[in-house]
Amino acid sequence: MLAAGAAVLPALRPGSVTPWTTVLPLAALYAVCELPARCTWGRCASDGGEARGPAFPGAGSFFPVLLAAALLLPPSAAALTAVPGALLAPVDAPPVTLRRVWRAARLVLAVWAAARVGQVLPCHDAGGLGNSLVVPDFPYVLLPAGATALAFSLALTVLDGGIRATVDQLPPHAAWRGLLGRSLAPHAVHTLAGLMMAVLWRSSYGPVAALFVLLPVSVSCWAFAQYHRERAAHQATIRALVQAVDIKDSYTRGHSERVGRASVLIAEELGMPEPRLEVVRFAGVLHDVGKLGVPTRVLSKDGPLTPEERRIIELHPEYGHEMVRGIGFLGEARSAILHHHEHLDGSGYPYGLKGEQIPEYARVVAVADAFDAMTSTRSYSRARPVEAAVAELERCAGTQFDPRMVAALVRALARHGWQTEVTADETAVPAPRPPAPSLSDPVAEPVSGPSSEPGDPVPGAAPLQERT
Prior knowledge:
Strand content: under 5%
Order of helices and strands: HHEEHHHHHHHHHHHHHHHHHHH
Largest sheet: 2 strands, antiparallel
Region (Disordered): 423-468
Pfam family, one: HD_5
Protein name: Integral membrane protein
Helix content: 55-70%
Strand order of the largest sheet: 1-2
Domain HD-GYP: 230-425
Number of strands: 2
CATH superfamily of the largest domain: Hypothetical protein af1432
Structural class: mainly alpha
Radius of gyration: 28 Å
Domain HD: 252-374
CATH architecture of the largest domain: Orthogonal Bundle
Number of helices: 21
Shape: elongated
């Protein structure tokens, strides 16, 4: 914020030669472009109505206005054009004021850096677009325009990665991974639109003609908003399925969301790219959706399961896979739902896969599922400490769990910690936990409780693969 203040200060000093006739229209234009993002289907955020998805995405959709300012104006004046729109942009989470000021400062610095680089690399025999140039010298003007886009992307990447590394305490490779690559292509397109705006702005047609450049940009915004609405529909589908499982099996309420969170922590440590992180989160959240096909009397039974009931429970991965088979956006998450109870040594179910035969996502979810089962307080058992759960996972690594996934979870927990919650109803009275089965038992039930599943770790018990 201090750096942003220093960047715009030269334009605000008394006696400074600031082209306000260009700064103010561009700043107002950018602010007007941000107003639709505050509204959802005609209802603004201040109305207090339920949001149904943004009509337009956020500030990034109208970066052409800012990049046109970077090509037209001196650095400090160009940076000013970002302030009103950034302060008007919607904020999804508190603290609202601090986030708005951060966003404004971030864009101010990015525009200032872009304008500064464009100023250092003027086009051939023209001195850049500048205030005096009417017709730029093509194709040489593309050099400062490209440098402007690169500087803009680099500045945003440095700031976004820096805030993720400091606030979210992500390791550098995770904080900055993919940020620049994902931003270069759209920013290059925005720069071309900004260049067209700048050329028309300084042409004999005047600033009004430059407004027509925003028409195709608005169309692209609408298409992007459609994508976001479709994504919101995907999220709603996931939530509905998870809520249905929670209603049917109240003893594991919240378990699915935490497994999804733990799965993402593991995947981040493994260096998975952003699109795969979303898929692995879907896999973790929906891993138990097949419980909808298991009779409630089996899920809610007090006491050990009979062999027949155990076989019914073991069908839930296949039920889940059938339920989500037609949901295309889940991708590889479907295989994780089917195979998250497979064991590395082949003793799991439903197909007894071994080692690398088990899909990677399924091996991630298996570790996350077992970890949350051990660290969650339920109506029939108290939560184990995180250290004890980790020790159990490490003990079973190489036989039941993939050692690489276990090691990734251990590293993630050391960095981020773990927040556990009670997953049973608050009014439920904890029942005494039965003694752990011994190795001499012919068929040992892992947990005798309402929501037990075959293969869940048990404190003090032998390795899970030996007990089955």
